[in-house]
Amino acid sequence: MSSHPPPSRFSLLSPTNTSARFSLPSAPSITTATTGTPKPLSRPNIYDRPLNKTRTAEVSASAFAFLFSEVVQYMQKRVSGINDLERRLNTLGYRIGTRVLELMVWRTESLSKAPKREIRFLPALMSIHTNVWKAVFGKPADAIEKSVQNEDEYMIIDNDPVVTRNISVPRDMSQLSCSSFTAGIVEAVLDGLGFPARVTAHNTPVNDFPLRNTILIKLEKSVLEREELFK
Amino acid sequence: MAIFGLWVINKAGGLVYQRNFADGLAQLTSNEYLVLAGTLHGIHAITSRLSPTGSSSGAHVIEAETFKMTILLTPTGTKFVLLTSLAETSANAVLQKVYEAYADGVMKNPFHTPDMPIRSEVFDTKIAALIEPGHT
């Protein structure tokens, strides 16, 4: 043991340090404290980074793919069928979607001079297609379609969804679409903007894009009625 | 210059993926492929202990008169074996890319059980894109 031991995790909690930890950017990060490594991290802890910097906030797609794979495996052991699995993925996505919306509102608020909240459905859908997709997946979605048969149905189409890029669903589960996770995100964002809807994901492969996925949005009646009043 | 086939052998010596690309090698039954893969696994284990100067990664290339097999051993013990013509020079580069496709299309797939036969469309497409276009 040296005469100057590295700071223990308890020293951070001592009253003299408490205020520094929460207010100064130079304060030791939480990770350094718990692992007890004496060397400071070169990058600041994720909690200490500014929320508005999106350029450096990207995470590894590989790391996400492995995590998502484990999530699906974990859930698969605890569900009774494909519907149940999709519902759970949807719920998980929903929890992320609420946060995504919150974060995006916060970002536009500080970046643009006239931040606005979408109150009409189509602009809201467009902003999901471009802004939400860019924030979550790093690229806009590929198309928006309106159902011909049902006027309360809209679709967002992604030719190469990041979430399921590495997933091959076995034949006996061919109806399963792991993009239910993405559907959950969309549902939460729509809900948060005041357009309650039921959102589901469907595999719609075409020759050039075997992984092509359609997110189907079925709006609630109240939304359509309100849109009518706006006209 | 031709790539005849690709095998993936798991760390226990089981053949988990086998695919032929170009004609030129005699076709074997699936059982014979399994036996061959298991034998290669054993031989590889012995060759890795032959080195006079400490540890070795074992046999790298096995050459015959008309073809050669190039072996890539990953740190986790999975082996990728590429059967090519003698003149083929890209074997090592191809194997590296196959390893990459394996990491993406197989290991990140929640419906794949480790060390079990690989049934992944993503992996199949990636391998086809990697090997077939230049060697049809």
UniProtKB/TrEMBL annotation, chain A:
Give the record's GO biological process terms. Answer: endoplasmic reticulum to Golgi vesicle-mediated transport
Task: State any GO CC term.
Answer: TRAPPI protein complex
Q: Which UniProt keywords apply?
A: Endoplasmic reticulum, ER-Golgi transport, Golgi apparatus, Transport
Task: Cite the CDD domains for this sequence.
Answer: TRAPPC5_Trs31
Localization, UniProt: Endoplasmic reticulum; Golgi apparatus, cis-Golgi network
Main subcellular localization, coarse class?
A: endoplasmic reticulum
Q: Which InterPro entries match?
A: NO_sig/Golgi_transp_ligand-bd (IPR024096), TRAPP-I_su5 (IPR016696), TRAPP_component (IPR007194)
Note down the stretches annotated as region Disordered.
Answer: 21-48
**Which domain of life does this protein belong to?**
Eukaryota
Keyword Transport among record annotations: yes
**Chain intervals with Polar residues compositional bias:** 21-37
This protein's assembly is summarised as:
Part of the multisubunit TRAPP (transport protein particle) complex.
Q: Which family does it belong to?
A: Belongs to the TRAPP small subunits family. BET3 subfamily.
Name of the molecule in the record: Trafficking protein particle complex subunit
Lineage, top ranks: Eukaryota, Fungi, Dikarya, Basidiomycota, Agaricomycotina
From TrEMBL, chain B:
Alphabetical list of PANTHER family matching this protein: TRAFFICKING PROTEIN PARTICLE COMPLEX SUBUNIT, TRAFFICKING PROTEIN PARTICLE COMPLEX SUBUNIT 4
For this UniProt entry, what is the primary localization, expressed as one broad class?
Answer: endoplasmic reticulum
The superkingdom listed in its UniProt entry is Eukaryota
The cellular location(s) given in this protein's UniProt record come to: Endoplasmic reticulum; Golgi apparatus, cis-Golgi network; Golgi apparatus
- Give the record's GO biological process terms: endoplasmic reticulum to Golgi vesicle-mediated transport
Question: Which SUPFAM superfamilies has this protein been placed in?
Answer: SNARE-like
Q: What is this protein called?
A: Trafficking protein particle complex subunit
Q: Does the keyword Chaperone apply?
A: no
Lineage from the top down?
A: Eukaryota, Fungi, Dikarya, Basidiomycota, Agaricomycotina
Q: Which CDD domains match?
A: TRAPPC4_synbindin
Q: Which UniProt keywords apply?
A: Endoplasmic reticulum, ER-Golgi transport, Golgi apparatus, Transport
Subunit and interaction comment: Part of the multisubunit transport protein particle (TRAPP) complex.
Family that this chain belongs to: Belongs to the TRAPP small subunits family. TRAPPC4 subfamily.
Gene Ontology cellular-component terms listed: endoplasmic reticulum; Golgi apparatus; TRAPP complex
